[in-house]
Amino acid sequence: MLLILYGFEYKWGDCRVKDGNAIELRNISKRFGKVVANDHINLSVRYGEILAILGENGSGKTTLMNMISGIYFPDEGQIFVHGEEVTIRSPKDAFPLGIGMIHQHFKLVDVLTAAENIVLGLPGPMRLDIDAVSARIRELAAKYGFDIDPNKKIYEMSVSQKQTVEIMKMLYRGANILILDEPTAVLTPQETEALFAVLRNMRDAGNAIIIITHKLNEVLELSDRVAVLRKGKYVGSVQTAEATVESLTEMMVGSKVTLDIDRLEPIDEPQVRLVMKDVTCVDPEGIITLNHASFTAYGGEILGIAGVAGSGQKELLESIAGLTPKESGEIEYYPPNQPMQVISKFSAVEISRLGIKLSFVPEDRLGMGLVGAMDMTDNMMIRSYRKGGFFWADRRAPKTLAEHIIGALEIVTPGVSTPVGKLSGGNVQKVLVGREIASAPTVLMVAYPVRGLDINSAYTIYSLLNVQKMRGVAVLYVGEDLDVLLALCDRILVLCGGRVTGIVDARTATKEQIGLMMTSSGKEGER
Amino acid sequence: MSNNNHGVREPLFHISRRQDYSLWLAVFVRLAAILLALVVCGVVIVALTGLNPMEVYAGIIDGAVGSSRRLWVTIRDTLALLLVAVAITPAFKMRFWNIGGEGQVLIGATATAAVMIYLGNKVSAPVLFTLMIGASLLAGMVWGVIPALFKAGWNTNETLFTLMMNYVATQIVSFCIVFWENPVGSNSVGIINASTNAGWLPPLFGLTYGWNLVIVLAITVFIYVYLRYSKQGYEIAYVGQSVNTARYAGINVKTVIIRTMAISGALCGLAGFILVSGAGHTISTTLAGGRGFTAIVVAWLSKLNTFTMMIVSFLLTFMAKGAIQIASQFSLNENASEIITGIILFFVLGCEFFINYKVEFRHRHREG
Amino acid sequence: MAVIITFLQNAIRQGICILFGANGEILTEKSGNLNLGVPGMMYMGGIAGLAAAFMYERSTQTPNPVVGFLLVLVAALLAGGLGGLIYSVLTISLRANQNVSGLALTTFGVGVGNFFGGSLSKLAGGVGQISTAVTANAFRAKLPLLPKIPVVGDVLFGYGLLTYLSIAVSIVLSWFLNCSRQGLCLRAVGENPATADAAGINVSLYKYLASVIGGAICGLGGLYFVMEYSGGTWTNNGFGDRGWLAVALVIFARWRPLNAIWGSLLFGALYILYLYIPGLGRSTQEIFKMLPYVVTIIVLILISLRKKKEDQPPESLGLHYFREDR
């Protein structure tokens, strides 16, 4: 039977100020399939210290921390907590060691109050004395300087209040080693300040704090020490007092890597294809995701879009595609040899009905761009099923197209009738890109098209994009690898916190320059 | 995730989704489940009645297909169940839980009966049938669209909404019976137009249920084609698979929800027409007889394939008809069929797990 | 006055079995399981109770009402719980679809009820001949003295023990859900099983227990109908649509057991209102019987329009939960 009642014992580490290393990692490695996420990493954090772990997206920061909090189990290496070697198999093993991790996606029950969420799952007498819990929460809040209302429901809370509940949940359970994954990503500057104050109080009380981030100014402001990861490897660590924005940027992005990606010179005079004017988007929670963004995209060029994750890339593309509602601003579309159309007022339904030649390879391939349970022909039809008469959907042309794409892009699949969800990541992406290119677009938008792909598949995608560029298509390329962006694109637009912080010529720009614009010290955090 | 195991309790087995789908495995598991269910039913029968289960099963077969008349009654009821199952399929393909088939059938039947009663002897047969069919389609459609409107507009829970609509329909039937009862005071409608047979589906090719057969099979084929080969069928599939993809493809999700439920409801209404005009020639609150619910099971077990539904609905009707026979033959109670059907359903529902998942025991599988 | 008192009493009698069903279903749904097998479980509970009473009274010359009462109560609880267990095995362990499994359970349970009900009648010598007088009287026995209080006495205290048990179940359930540690865990499981899992709660265990105990409570609803309302007899399908009314009441009460108490009274009243309004034709009576369902639909629409979080169904209602990758 599946009924196994886990005996639950919490042996919380006591909260006294301790000396020495709270956590020490030795030679930790983790692989996912062929991808090495963490490669022999050594790292330590002391009690009474705030350690910042700095690195670009995909550098392995979160994976590493997930191994400390029990989400993943390392393939190799040892973990020491307070000098003793430990095995952390699940979050349940991490709690008693005093380790608490606050993830980017909060694990809270919306309809419950803060106090209920905090006490959830803890042992004790059947009658739940919620007032006593609230009192204890207030006591902890006073100690560290939190602002929290234990009786407020989670769904009534702002993001920063929810984060406070998550931190309090860990403290209430007696955690003295706290890991925060990108805690400021969702906060306003004022909220960030308040959080930092609390974290400093917690450090002064003798807790060990690890904060994962890619924002240099925050690292410099908050941390005592910085450890830098790059592409799964440990680069080194420095005392924050001795670090500067420039030195950290260099450690983070590394020296320029020469990639063998062709950048073809545009042939004709570039034609304007798409103009975004002052577009602002606000998400349902009221956070500004795209802040007065403006740019122009030309046919025959690849416009790269750089930025740390969640800087508004998704909203920028989806607002063009008519999938994200816009608060204000205008988007103009200039088809070849036809009059300009203002498409900002159209939804995706109208854009596809009007035959606007806009192709979009979304980040979420199998959740949005394709249907995993359907075969290639049916997935081709997502774009083409409307063609033809009133009743019948034309399956012949899409089937031919599917067969053509299999041949042209060398897709490895048992056949057109295999569900695309069963294909490998690279092949899934080829199916998607192949379909989007097939409709001969005027504007082609691609989001993280090579994520999770092996080198060969990635190069196939680059050359496909280059072919489109030479056909006069305006290509918008959202990417995370700066080396690739610099080698492939003609111009690079940099986003930070929903703002366009600049557009640079990819032939002359440097990684440091873009890295600084991405983290945008000084202008950071305006929302 | 198990390098060293000391002190940590691990689950006894590890469950993972099967990556490869094998048709043979699926057929084998399902057959095994049905067989096992029949064995369990046999044990239950012996335990309860002391009868030889083989005799009981023989009685079931005799009752369902033992004579030409019994066979045709079985076919007639299979067709009715099949039509309801086919009718709710578009909604289920869209992942819209239409539990309201029962009510949509009833309301379609009521509309049919109303036309038969009030116009039966006043208009010519072609006009009468057109009106009856039109009324049943329209009534079922209205009953299906109401919950769909609220689902599309405000995401109102459709499972509970359609469920409630069933009983509103039941009461409407009760309401109508008061006006239509014949003879007065019987609280039942009796056979409508018993003397003139107006509005009764006539025999076709010499078969009493010829029209039923033609209409139901035509709709079965149509829905199969509609879902697989039509544009709207694709829209339904995309909405059902992923609302996100549907939006990305530029599909108006709300329109699709409402349109699909209109079709689904209308066809359920048509099933009401078949039940009144083509079978019972009367109306009562129990006319739908739970078909709206059984049809959900049929559609689900058939994986929404309308042709598989023919087999499944025949099997279920077969059991029900057979049980009536054994009830009289062995002085059992005819509700035995529901118990047997229930047990078979439990096994068939449960066996899907072994088709979709792999269960690995700990000693065979040490790496997480 | 006398009419109003009879009306209230009859409304309560109609409402109690719905109240049991609703309480069982609230407990089940709070764990995220939408069990549409309520009618089936009620039938199972009812027939098991009746069969137990029948067997007991046949087996002894001098049946003892207390022993009979307890035997019957346990039988009904076990049978209802068995229904919940079948549902749980199918939906939790075998991950079968909740709606379809629930409907299959209804088919099964109704069949079991009518089959054994019919068989018992036959054993007893004909429809309506089942004699379980002693036990039935035990269920119908009123409290001593209290009903004699003038005016309110009979309205408040003129019922059998099960009536008070149903109110007690509502109150205990309400306390459990809102004030106990385990109730908090159960709500978390129904709302967000992944979060509950991360907090160290055994999601499957909670779902199993809630569904089985919920089924047992539903079984009591059937028992009430058979023993107290019908006085220990069985009519096939005599139970009517009370099982579905119980599901409706869950929505109407917005998943709160205390609301279900007065909701059941209202449903019971609406159910029989037509008998007490003078001058109603038979047709209008049928329209009146529609009211509980129409009211439920309106409530359902209103809660989706208002989008008030506390009034929504548990967020994971109808969904499976399993940690695929762990």
Explain this structure to me?
The complex is a heterotrimer of chains A (527), B (368) and C (326). By secondary structure, chain A is of the alpha/beta class. Chain A is built from 17 helices and 20 strands. Chain A has three domains: 21-253, Rossmann fold (3-Layer(aba) Sandwich), CATH 3.40.50.300; 256-357 and 440-527, 3-Layer(aba) Sandwich (Rossmann fold); 371-439, no CATH class. Chain A has a six-stranded mixed β-sheet with strand order 6-7-8-3-9-10, with helices on both faces. A six-stranded mixed β-sheet of chain A has the order 16-17-18-13-19-20, sandwiched between helices. A four-stranded antiparallel β-sheet of chain A has the order 2-1-4-5, with helices on one face. Chain B has 368 residues and is mainly α. The longest helix of chain B is centred in the middle third of the chain and has 30 residues, at 125-154. Chain C is globular. Chain C starts with a helix and ends in a 20-residue tail after the last helix. Chain C has a single domain, classed as Orthogonal Bundle (ABC transporter involved in vitamin B12 uptake, BtuC), CATH 1.10.3470. Chains in contact: A-B, A-C, B-C. At the B-C interface, strand 1, helix 6, helix 11 and helix 13 of B face helix 3, helix 4, helix 11 and helix 13 of C.
